[in-house]
Amino acid sequence: MAIICRKYSLLYLMAPRTGCTAVEEALEKELEGELVPQQDILDENGNFRMHRRHHSLRAMFKHRLLTEEEAAPLLKFSCIRNPYDSLIIDN
Half-sphere exposure (CA, 13 Å, Cβ side) for 34? Predict the structure, then answer.
């Protein structure tokens, strides 16, 4: 999932296991963020095509959720997490 804050020209791409839900909630509440897409994308037979969370900008273009022209002026950002934190949490 991504969050677009059109008023502030921001595009937040959610990365797995980074605490992105907290960032998502803040962007929605404080900066009028919109979730894109709102649900998983399925093909005409109901088969899974794209998960609503944790996808790339390229996938957004491919599934016509955003055009390159729409994305160009946006400040695009994501968060990463120290990989050792995940090792400690998993064990």
Answer: 10
CA–CA dist 32, 26 (Å, integer) = 9
Domain ranges of the chain: 2-81
pLDDT in tens, 45-91: 766 666 666 677 888 888 788 899 999 999 999 888 777 766 666 65
Spatial contact of 13 and 56, defined as CB atoms under 8 Å apart: yes
Nearest to 63 by CA among 33, 40, 46, 79: 40
Q: What angle do CA 46, 47, 49 make, to 5 degrees?
A: 120
Q: Is 11 exposed, middle or buried (0-12, 13-18, 19+ CB in 10 A)?
A: buried
